[in-house]
Amino acid sequence: MARDFTDLMNQLKDQKIDQFEVEPDEFPAFQQAFMAFETRKRVIGEAHKGGKLVYHYDRDATEDQS
Length: 66
Fold this sequence. Notes:
single chain, alpha+beta, 3 strands
């Protein structure tokens, strides 16, 4: 069962979590949720060995742009 990536991104935005990981086989499901996420430009990913991605929310941007 695929994880709810929209919920995870909302948790990032709401500061309930600091980051989450996406494994390579999960990326297509994540990408679909990411493209539909309203503030996706503030969800920042960092690639790690083995294709794992770690995402966090950019809080440095002005809040009124969210």
